Amino acid sequence: MDTRLTLPPHLLETIKQLLIADVELPSDLRRDLEAALSSAAVVAVDAQRTVPDTERGQERPEDSSGGHYPEGAEVSEAAEEVVPPTIDVEVLEQLSRWATSNDGRALLKRKRLDPSNYLLISLLAGTEVYLPPSQRDRLIASQNPEKPNPYLPSYLSPATPSFGREFRSLSKQLTTIFNVLFSVFGSAFAVYFAATTGAGWDREHAILLGVLAGCVVGVADGVLVWIFAGRLEKSRKEARERGAELAKGSAKDGLKVVEREEGRDDIPGAGEGSTAAETSLEKRKLRLRRRGIGEADL
After folding, report:
1. How far apart (Å, rounded) are the C-alpha atoms in residues 184 and 176?
2. How far is CA 44 from the centre of its chain?
3. Quick one: pLDDT at residue 64?
4. Largest CB tally within 10 Å, which of 4, 201, 252, 264?
5. Is this structure's pTM higher than 0.70?
6. What is the largest CA-CA distance in the chain?
């Protein structure tokens, strides 16, 4: 598939100056450049045709019944997308190679044109890769992890999460949060209760000790959850990569079978035995037995 680049205004002007100067270009290069300019002119005409009448300062046309549009009414006209002028990247590369050659540089200077304007970096400045609307939509859809990938088979595309799966995931997250909060506040209250009743500390020191114990337990729970989530994500990533590798398939099994068969052929005497057996069978079939005249009566 050819790579098409959009034609910015400065590149159109550069190509137009080259063609107007009537420089002796290769026939195929001149034909491609003229085709690019003609397509740009057609696109400009189409763009002018698709401009709404309100933008041109004209009044809205009346309907067939002779009445005007009512106030507040919105006229929705689906305007087709105008394809921008494009050029093949190989044409620009060919133009750059010709302009950097000795003959091309001499012809450009003879026509008072700057050869640096026709370098590849100057020609590609401001250009963008053009993608058709269908291909652009497919690329956008492939970047969305929640939608099926249009470039992959259905069994490899990620399935849309169901309500039950989302509910179970949410319930797991809430359970984890409640467990962490219960462990933090439970440990803090236990330390406070033990300090005030068993150790006989005053309330201020007991509260401070309880808060410190809750902070320690909270940090420990956070580290454990972070480690568990990292390992779970790593295992899921490895499982996805393993599934993708298995889905791609491999020719190793077929190569092993071929090598095994070739190894049998390489074993000395293997082929000779089969050939000798076949030859002996053929010889048995063709072998005649001599009998005497008297043996036929027996």
Report:
1. 12
2. 33
3. 41
4. 4
5. no
6. 135
